[in-house]
Amino acid sequence: MINDVERILISEAQLAERIKELGAQITADYAGKEILAIGVLRGAVVFMADLTRAIKVPVAIDFMAVSSYGAGTDSSGVVRILKDLDENIEGRHLLIVEDIIDSGLTLTYLLENLKSRKPASIKLCTLLNKPERRKAEVQIDYNGFTVPDYFVVGYGLDFAEKYRNLPFIGILKPEVYK
Ligand code: PRP
Ligand code: MN
Ligand code: MG
Question: Does a structural domain hold residue 145?
Fold first, then answer.
């Protein structure tokens, strides 16, 4: 698995440091409030686990699965709800947690869908932002790292369901996905 990685883009230590900062910023911004963190399955799971533990106000968690990618590397633009929320979100402060914003199509769909359920507020926290690939504008409230247009894996991010358990963000060797 590790042999498929060309190089490490963001190390385990860099991830931990940045997540600590994001947690402190979110804690300050939500003082006196309770958060409902919504993780977007499956990529956000690893980041969600670390981020929520870095936040010091009460955090409830729920998950949604909204898939726009198949086994390939490109977004089809087709968004499907594979699993909806279990929680009622009306009047609550939502923090959507994503591993990466790429084309922005997944989040554009998801934000519209969630807004219609009348939450008190919605903010978006993404670990990675790849603006070069944007097709739909998305407002990101908390951004871990802006990354160039490499095929990145690890720390939740997959290629064909592999590499999610790497503890760092790595760049995949082109021969692996070509
Ligand atoms: C990936 C990633 C984001 C989305 C970003 O998920 O985790 O959710 O694509 O792409 P976009 O900005 O172009 O919409 P994917 O559909 O691969 O599912 P996964 O999280 O289960 O890997
Ligand atoms: Mn995802
Ligand atoms: Mg994926």
Answer: yes
Domain with 103, as residue range(s), is: 11-149
Distance 32 CA to ligand 2 centre (A): 30
Q: What number does the ligand 1 atom closest to the CA of 101 have?
A: 12
- pLDDT digit string, tens, across residues 15-52: 999 999 999 999 999 999 999 999 999 999 999 999 99
Instruction: Output the pTM of the full model.
Output: 0.95
Do 63 and 54 form a contact (C-beta atoms < 8 A)?
no
105 CB under 6 A from ligand 1? yes
Per cent of the chain over pLDDT 90 is 90
CATH number of the domain at 103, please: 3.40.50.2020
User: Of the ligands numbered here, which is closest to the C-alpha atom of 99?
Assistant: 1
In a domain, 98, yes or no: yes
In a domain, 56, yes or no: yes
Name every residue whose Cβ is closer than 8 Å to that of residue 30 and which is 6 or more positions away in sequence.
Answer: 55, 57, 93
50 is catalytic: no
Domain count, the chain: 1
Ligand 1, pocket-test mutation among 45, 68, 152, most atoms within 8 A of CB = 68
Distance separating alpha carbons of residues 169 and 17, to the nearest angstrom: 14
